[in-house]
Specification:
With 359 residues, the chain is mainly beta. The chain is 1% helix and 38% strand. A 4-stranded antiparallel sheet has the order 3-2-1-27, with no helix packed on it. It has a 4-stranded antiparallel sheet with strand order 7-8-9-10. The protein is globular and about 50 Å long.
């Protein structure tokens, strides 16, 4: 069995957990104590893994740190790693997403607030603004979601570096086919029920929470919307709802099983103000037929009543297993596709992001 790492970014620090030979995950002492860590990545593409952490220094502002020794020591670029050019008049508020490219060995993408995409060509040390998206004519009209005007999801094509999608709250899903030089809104079929009747299917303005794909079927995307779970079979060309049999189609994360491209997981919440598990029962829902049907999975999860929320990046599926973290500081793991769950950590700060990888 292989060794694995779990990275847990919280409101007050980063926690790393290691599994040796397929054994239980052991949580290590906190890194970046009292510092918010809204984004993490475990980059296993090179000769040795690199950890990336988007951090919030409070008064000193956001930055990106990297580690080449599995978190024992951390470095920062000599200049601000992610920064807006002066001509934009914008100031970085948060790095929401760090995404290594699956098709370009040294490229890492960063999603930021205010909503923007940045590209790194040195494995995440320094980044440059993708001006094609920043200059899109829709951008001045984008409106923030509850968490701010953020580019929180980056979906690169697994083999074609020219093709990529991004999600912005509350603007919607945008895609490029020329490496980021030009972009188009790709929200056809996504209903925005918070808009007036007759205007609920706009070109843009949808509050997309998360988007995921499986590398074996890169044209198929799954999307968790503010109201709705959707699937696209043409990389966002058109969307149709697949959440009709769920107890609620409101939620934040959506992840695809690394072994089975038809298997997808969501975590339904009561909409809209409550944002706690439906019936206050903490259940992950799994579909094995690309969203046509769903069933609940809760063996080993806390008994009801449960009043927690799981944020958009606080759930992940990888070769190391399926994991999610809650806003009350618990992290749960499954190695059998959600059929059973075990507790990895508890009493952590508010969990913002979770990533896992086999080392």
């Amino acid at each position: 069995m292989s060794d694995a790492m779990l990275a847990i970014g919280t409101r007050k620090g980063l926690f790393l957990a290691r599994s040796t030979g397929g054994g239980p995950f052991e949580v290590q002492p906190i890194r970046f104590s009292t510092v918010g860590v809204p984004s993490v990545a475990i980059d296993t593409r090179g000769p040795s893994p690199r950890l990336l952490a988007g951090i919030e220094y409070g008064h000193f502002g956001p930055s990106v740190m990297y580690s080449d020794d599995l978190g024992e020591s951390w470095q920062e670029a000599s200049r601000p790693p992610v920064a807006f050019p002066d001509k934009t008049g914008a100031t970085l508020a948060r790095v929401w997403q760090l995404q290594p490219s699956p098709s370009e060995p040294d490229v890492v993408w960063a999603g930021a607030e205010p909503a923007a995409l940045f590209r790194s060509e040195d494995r995440g040390v320094t980044y440059e603004l993708v001006e094609g998206l920043w200059e899109h004519p829709h951008r001045p009209h984008w409106q923030p979601g509850g968490g701010g005007l953020c580019l929180h999801t980056i979906v690169p094509h697994p083999s074609d570096p020219r093709v990529m999608g991004v999600a912005v709250s509350a603007a919607g899903f945008y895609r490029t086919a020329d490496g980021g030089l030009s972009w188009e809104a790709a929200n056809q079929g996504i209903r925005a029920p918070f808009l007036p009747e007759g205007r609920q299917y706009p070109e843009f303005g949808q509050c997309v929470h998360k988007v995921a794909l499986h590398p074996a079927r890169p044209d198929r995307l799954f999307l968790q919307h503010h109201f709705g779970v959707y699937r696209s079979d043409d990389f966002g060309g058109a969307w149709h709802g697949v959440g009709g049999s769920l107890p609620s189609d409101f939620g934040f994360p959506v992840v695809v099983d690394p072994h089975r491209p038809d298997t997808v997981y969501v975590l339904p919440l009561q909409a809209d103000v409550d944002r706690t598990p439906v019936e206050h029962r903490l259940r992950v829902y799994r579909s094995d037929d690309a969203g046509d049907t769903w069933r609940p999975l809760d063996r080993g999860l806390p008994e009801p009543p449960v009043h927690v929320t799981v944020l958009r990046d606080a759930m992940t599926a990888s070769e190391a297993g399926l994991f999610f973290g809650t806003r009350d500081g618990e992290v749960h793991a499954s190695t059998d596709g959600g059929e059973s769950w075990s507790l990895v950590a508890r009493h952590l700060p508010d969990v913002l992001t979770v990533r896992a990888a086999v080392l």
